[in-house]
Write a structure and sequence with these properties.
The structure holds 2 protein chains of 2 kinds. By secondary structure, chain A is α+β, with helices and mostly antiparallel strands. Chain A has a single domain, classed as 2-Layer Sandwich (Alpha-Beta Plaits). Chain A is built from 5 helices and 4 strands. In chain A, the strands form 2 sheets. A two-stranded antiparallel ribbon of chain A has the order 1-4. Chain A has a two-stranded antiparallel sheet with strand order 2-3. Chain B is an alpha/beta fold. Chain B has 3 domains: 318 residues, FAD/NAD(P)-binding domain, CATH 3.50.50; 92 residues, Flavocytochrome C3, Chain A, domain 1 (Alpha-Beta Complex), CATH 3.90.700; 91 residues, Fumarate reductase/succinate dehydrogenase flavoprotein-like, C-terminal domain (Methane Monooxygenase Hydroxylase, Chain G, domain 1, Up-down Bundle). Chain B has 17 helices and 21 strands. In chain B, strands 1, 2, 5, 6, 7, 8, 16 and 17 form an 8-stranded mixed β-sheet that branches. Chain B starts with a helix and ends with a helix. The chains are: A alpha+beta, B alpha/beta. At the A-B interface, helix 1, helix 2, helix 4 and helix 5 of A face strand 4, helix 6, helix 9 and helix 10 of B. The site of flavin-adenine dinucleotide has 44 residues of chain B, from helix 2, helix 3, strand 3 and helix 12. Flavin-adenine dinucleotide binds next to helix 2, helix 3, strand 3 and helix 12 of chain B.
């Protein structure tokens, strides 16, 4: 579930509010959005990959909320890791160009 | 048609008796409703809805697309990504693509539709490349168009839909269809949940592309998929088909949401005590896995992939590895536990019954596409790993958008001057009896108790189906009596009602099919019965009924294809 919006990184663009399929966030005028309905989060990682400044972290636990620490996430390279893997963000090549599914399915054991 | 007008007559009486009667309409806390007109209204912004909107707009129609979430991030494809049922246009490749499917689909598919979808998919995949989606190239420089990564695909579709001048309303779940007094669909109504208001769109034709129903199982990207479109279509008088093929389960880590199965093709499975479960190389889906899970915990390790291949796996499906990397599990060396999450009609094949080649339903003015529609015409009783669904969503989306645009054009100015009536009931126009204490949350939990268990829904038996069905029927009056007191509760109430309706169509159809075919497995009828090579149509809300339909639809399609070739 969504566990972190970093107030120091967030630029208040509200993109996460717009894209969240299950409407988890509330916009805050002149401020950082709030996680208003965490229980509705479906752990789809969409907010995280749309966030232009890697201010968000979605923990893999879909059923329960877990504590996360921003500094640890930065140190381990997990903050923004999925966005990096799909090649979103300035100066990155889009990951779909390197999609090797055609090689993997060729060997699929079915 | 007789049935349709009867149904509508009954509804009209109910609605007239209560005036407009929608819970919360006229509530002073709400902002003034948004009212729009369009030639074509598309409900849902996954691949099917995006293609429908693009296709209708390309024919000159004024199009509005509404999505519960956001066109670009919402739905199964945006988060899951998809491999595509795709073949080169030569006759040999096409035959092979069909043959591979016919072996597994339970012989309920139609060769004419399969040809048509393969051709439309071939064309649309080339369009996707022209739209700017970056496909990979192999070592020889040949572009490989066999899969789509979800976020990139839907981001691309959002851009082209917007460029085609479609009006997009995000965060705007549809709640009900509007009918004119002939019973023709004439628009829809919903809420803009971030604007605190209702919306109404008067339209010449409506395409339902709301995806399947995964019963809020938290399968990847699927919690927006609660079957709302089928509920709305049924209220308007449409029927469903193939609802017994609605029990797709997909594997995930027990705590996580990512239900991608392909990589498990390189797994060794074992029990709690470490003994290997033999004969299991099967990745996606998982009746074998379900059977093992009924006996106790099951673990997997992807030890059949060498280090070179592991790299290919990561670049193929980055999303599969996210929960592993984030919980510190190395799936190539460490055993990890598995569970199965229900995906229902997402990667199932049942849905709103398609009544013609443009994906029209039996209700005039109403079209259905993608997972919201029955995919039996190409997938029969099983959509397998799912590649069929990518092909179907882009093809059915394309056709329904074009069909809806032409239909709307044929109405002319009349389209927006008709008197209309909202026909939504459960959760929307509360009935004053049978109220329950728990509300939508309670109803959803009760449905999940009936549809999640593997020993009920994956492995079915007559007595268990009948028991579940009784309890689900008893839940329907509670769905009708819900009294939502906020817009959020209103959306929840409709979702809960849609899930109750789905579960009932599903089990009523499953009870009727006294054989095992496709993904429908009856322990009490373990074999395929050649006498039941027909589809099962289901319909109704207060009273549900199921009847067989012989396989004849395909002939019409073959004729149309011949016309196209001749032209
Ligand atoms: C994990 C996973 C992996 C998959 N892999 C593959 C694959 O490899 N190959 C393949 O072919 N298929 C695959 N599938 C299936 C594929 O994703 C679906 O078939 C496809 O997304 C269907 O497209 P759609 O547009 O019909 O529905 P969706 O993509 O689910 O979109 C439906 C849209 O409707 C919206 N909506 C819902 N209710 C309402 C409402 N009331 N009002 C307005 N909007 C609403 C939703 O917000 C959503 O945006 C996979 C599915 C999953 C879950
Ligand atoms: S998307 Fe990121 S930067 Fe924008 S408001 Fe959300 S958290 Fe802040
Ligand atoms: S992970 Fe998905 S559902 Fe959860 S907050 Fe982010 S976008 Fe919303």
């Amino acid at each position: 579930m969504i566990e972190l919006i970093s107030p120091t990184r967030c630029i208040e663009c509200n993109l996460c509010v717009k894209v969240c399929p299950t409407n988890v966030f509330d916009e805050v005028r002149g401020g950082v959005p709030v996680i208003a309905r965490q229980e509705d989060c479906q752990t789809c990682y969409q907010c995280e990959i749309h966030c232009p400044v890697d201010a968000m972290y979605v923990a893999p636990e879909a059923e329960v909320s877990v504590a996360v620490d921003e500094n640890e996430l930065i140190a381990s390279g997990l903050l923004g890791s999925y966005r990096k893997e799909i090649g979103w963000g300035k100066g990155r090549e889009r990951g779909s160009k390197f999609d090797t599914t055609y090689l993997v399915t060729r060997q699929f054991r079915g | 048609m007789l049935w349709t007008s009867f149904r509508f007559g009954a509804l009209r009486k109910v609605v007239a008796a209560m005036g407009d009667g929608i819970a919360l309409v006229g509530n002073p806390q709400l902002d003034e409703a948004l009212e729009l007109t369009a030639d074509v209204l598309v409900i849902g912004g996954g691949p099917a809805g995006a293609w429908a909107a693009w296709s209708a707009a390309s024919r000159g129609a004024r199009v509005v697309l509404v999505d519960k979430g956001y066109l670009g991030s919402s739905g199964a494809a945006a988060s899951g990504g998809m491999t595509i049922w795709h073949s080169e246009p030569d006759a040999d490749s096409r035959e092979r693509a069909k043959e591979n499917r016919r072996k597994v689909d339970g012989l309920l598919s139609d060769l004419g539709w399969m040809d048509r979808v393969l051709e439309q998919t071939y064309q649309n995949v080339q369009r996707i490349e022209q739209f700017g989606y970056p496909f990979p190239a192999d070592a020889e420089g040949n572009v490989q168009r066999r899969s789509l990564q979800g976020p990139e695909y839907l981001r691309t579709m959002r851009r082209v839909v917007k460029d085609a001048k479609v009006t997009v309303l995000d965060q705007s779940p549809a709640l009900e269809l509007l009918l004119d007094y002939d019973g023709t669909v004439a628009g829809a109504r919903g809420v803009q949940r971030q604007e605190n208001r209702f919306w109404t769109v008067r339209a010449g034709a409506v395409v339902i592309a709301t995806g399947g129903c995964a019963f809020l199982s938290k399968s990847l990207g699927c919690n927006v998929l609660t079957g709302d479109g089928a509920l709305m279509a049924a209220e308007a008088g449409s029927s469903l088909s193939g609802m017994e093929f609605s029990n797709h389960y997909a594997p995930s880590l027990p705590f996580a949401s990512v239900t991608k199965g392909l990589m498990l093709g390189w797994a060794t499975y074992s029990r709690e005590d470490g003994t290997v479960i033999a004969g299991r190389g099967r990745g996606p889906g998982g009746n074998a896995l379900g059977a093992a899970l009924l006996e106790g915990p099951v673990y997997a390790v992807l030890d059949k992939a060498d280090p070179e291949f592991q790299k290919l796996m990561r670049t193929a499906q980055p999303n599969f590895f996210v929960p592993f990397d984030r919980s510190g599990i190395d799936p190539f060396t460490q055993r990890f536990p598995l569970k199965l999450r229900l995906e229902g009609t997402v990667r199932g094949t049942g849905g709103i019954r398609i009544a013609g080649p443009n994906c029209e339903t039996s209700v005039p003015g109403l079209y259905a596409a993608g997972d919201a529609a029955s995919r039996e015409v190409i997938a029969g009783g099983v959509s397998g790993g799912g590649a069929l669904n990518a092909a179907w969503s882009m093809s059915s989306g394309f056709w329904s958008g074009a069909g809806a645009a032409d239909y709307a054009a044929s109405l002319g100015a009349r389209a927006h001057t008709r008197s209309v009536l909202g026909v939504g009931r459960a959760g929307l126009r509360p009935v004053p009896y049978g109220a329950t204490a728990g509300g939508a949350g309670e109803i959803v939990a009760r449905v999940q108790e009936e549809v999640f268990p593997y020993d009920r829904n994956m492995f079915r038996t007559g007595p268990k189906l009948a028991g579940s069905l009784d309890r689900l029927h008893a839940l329907w009056p509670q769905a009708l009596a819900q009294q939502p007191s906020s817009l959020r509760e209103l959306v929840r109430a409709r979702e809960a009602a849609a899930m109750v309706a789905h579960a009932r169509w599903m089990y009523a159809s499953a009870l009727e099919r006294t054989e095992s075919r496709g993904m429908h497995v009856r322990l009490d009828y373990p074999h395929l019965d050649p006498g039941q090579q027909h589809r099962l149509i289901s319909s109704g809300l207060d009273h549900i009924w199921v009847r067989p339909e012989t396989l004849s639809l395909g002939r019409r399609v073959r004729e149309i294809k011949r016309e196209l070739v001749a032209a």
